[in-house]
Amino acid sequence: EKEYLMQYGDDPGTPVKNIETPQDLREQFVLTDAEVQDLAKWALEIESHYQRPMDIEWAKDGETGKLYIIQARPETVHSQVNPLHVTEYHIKDKGKCLARGEAIGRKVVTGKARLLSSPAESGKLQAGDIVVTDLTSPDWDPILKLAGGIITNKGGRTSHASIVARELGVPAVVGCGNATESIRDGVPITVSCSEGKTGFVYEGHVPFTETDIDFSSIQKPACTKVMLIAGDPDKAYTLSFYPNDGVGLMRLEFIITHAVQVHPMALIRYDAVTDQEAKNTIDKLARNYPDRATYFVDKLAQGVATIAAAFYPKVVIVRMSDFKSNEYANLVGGRDFEPKEENPMIGFRGASRYYHELYREGFRLECEAIRKVRDQMGLSNVKVMIPFCRTVEEGRKVIAQMKAFGLEQSVNGLEVYVMAEIPSNVVLAEQFAELFDGFSIGSNDLTQLTLGIDRDSALVSNLFSEQNDAAMYMIATVIQKARAAGKKIGLCGQAPSDFPEFAAFLVQQGIHSISFNPDALLKGIEHIVQAERETIPASAKHAHSGLS
């Protein structure tokens, strides 16, 4: 938040002083991209010199702009954590939410709320109590060592409370705004940082599970590649230590919703936005960027790159945006640019948007973000996937549109995949294979369109099953056609982890990869290993896994 600025004092008795940071400086980026790269390079050189993880502090001269390393000491907290040992927390029953803010850590704890206005009230705190206060500073350190968790009204991910929480290994929810008003002293509460970047404070002792996992003992399948479904950049580093062969599906929707927040066309055609509140939000979000389009490109590229870097050099397959029109409309400024459809599930979505005049320029920004990640940041492990491509001709149009926007298939190793989630993708798989480098089966959409079921309708939901004979026929057929064409093919979905027989079916058909949500990964691996053991002779395993 950069609330205070440190300057030299005016007299010998006050060598330095803190003053409130002027608003224009608070709204500026602290470092340029080039300066970030310089600091990263120096950090690597320092750690290489000392041959150990280091905690490094830097400063930037306010007059000359020069960067200095001012301290380097051994890092003794995070370096001691074994990334192959993970504890997963899952809230069972959420209850009433008392406060929310930024989540620091991934734990869940319960304890008594202890409202403190200053360190002088340390006598009130018992070991394991959860500190609730306005803001912490270094003089709080001795007290916080007793805390089971920390909740603050103010602060962000780099605030004092956040830093201390990470060092102590306790969860914190910071920047809540009104926690000291909404939480009563002495009452039992639950702090949850297990639900993504937002942390929650629930009333009472909320039940949760705590599961310890040792990845070092996990046996990966011999043939079938096991990949992850990802979307949240904040979780990427931790997920990269899970047993995996890369990311088989990275959804852009999470980054656009939570980081960008704005409909891309509202940034491009700002004057056409009719909602003044939406314009105010856009002005605030994009104020530090050269223009509104750059805001979208940089924020999206940053999110994609965070995930791609965490898994590098493993493949990360990025699916271009696949919001339905009603979901796009919920983005800031989106209602002015989206049609009202009776059935958005099979309406203006996927590939059909990318070359259409209503969204073409928005797709250009998506392509520019991917190009920045691959060409400027050097993360060439990023591949691109096109969703909901109804016809072969539509596939040609999208590939041509991508080329016009600087993303050319095969240049710098760029591979372009297509989702196999429409019956036409199966029926004409040989023709789609001539255009695309690989397939990923979207079993949810393929099943609903094969069976003619709206999977959002409770009235017919009992008929929805990927294991229906017709759905399995479609899946088997597209796998066989892809393999015959020498193309890679995978599947993204929950069914292989839920149903061992479905995993066995995919292995028998010769699927190259299966992608799982993180919470389903270990069960999915177990099912695939068992299926390979039962269905693939040792002599055939090499042939089965020939495409990677």
Can you lay out the helices and strands and say which pair or pack?
Layout: E1 4-11, E2 14-20, H1 23-26, H2 33-50, E3 54-60, E4 67-74, E5 85-91, E6 97-104, E7 108-115, E8 130-133, H3 141-144, E9 149-152, H4 160-168, E10 172-174, H5 179-182, E11 188-192, E12 198-203, E13 208-214, E14 225-230, H6 236-239, E15 246-251, H7 253-260, H8 264-268, H9 276-285, H10 292-311, E16 315-319, H11 325-329, H12 351-354, H13 360-376, E17 382-386, H14 392-404, E18 416-420, H15 423-427, H16 429-435, E19 438-442, H17 443-451, H18 469-484, E20 488-492, H19 495-498, H20 500-509, E21 513-516, H21 521-535, H22 541-544
Parallel strand pairs: 7-8, 8-9, 9-10, 14-15, 14-21, 15-16, 16-17, 17-18, 18-19, 19-20, 20-21
Antiparallel strand pairs: 1-2, 3-4, 5-13, 6-10, 6-12, 7-11, 11-12
Helix pairs in contact: 7-10, 10-13, 17-18, 20-21
Helical residues, percent? 25-40%
- Number of helical elements: 22
- Our estimate of the beta-strand percent is 15-25%
The assigned CATH architecture of the domain at 252-414 is Alpha-Beta Barrel
Q: Tell me about the biggest sheet?
A: 8 strands, parallel, barrel
